[in-house]
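Input record, target 12 of the design panel.
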């Protein structure tokens, strides 16, 4: 079984930074593909960034150069460092885990059905 819990959300002014964390309290046996997704009011949930068991990363075009996804396997924790935040980054951010070492391909990684476990989310508000 897997439990994911996000933290680090909050309110910040445009241009500021936040660091989100996602802790896996009951981890998958092997290093797995994990990612961050977000959903703004009135919009569909979208992929932000993913990281594979081999630490290969993929980012949405809208966050490239501003966000960085990383993990600390010893702490069973996933991170999302968000810099140069914009009002359009305002959303509920959720972490997800996929059963498997490798992430979906670059053409399929945004498909929510490719992920098996989800956290409840943490709110990020940029003004």
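The sequence produced for target 12 reads:
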């Amino acid at each position: 079984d897997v439990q994911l819990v996000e933290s680090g959300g909050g309110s910040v002014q445009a241009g500021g930074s936040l660091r989100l964390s996602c802790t896996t309290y009951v981890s998958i046996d092997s290093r797995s593909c994990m990612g961050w997704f977000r959903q703004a009011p009135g919009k569909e949930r979208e992929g932000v960034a993913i990281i594979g068991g081999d630490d290969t990363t993929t980012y949405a075009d809208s966050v490239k150069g501003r966000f960085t996804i990383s993990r600390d396997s010893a702490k069973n924790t996933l991170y999302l460092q968000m810099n140069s935040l914009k009002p359009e980054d305002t959303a509920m951010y959720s972490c997800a885990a996929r059963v498997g070492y490798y992430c979906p391909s670059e053409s399929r990684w945004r498909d929510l059905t490719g992920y098996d476990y989800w956290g409840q989310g943490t709110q990020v508000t940029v003004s």
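Residues 84 and 121 are 21 Å apart (CA to CA).
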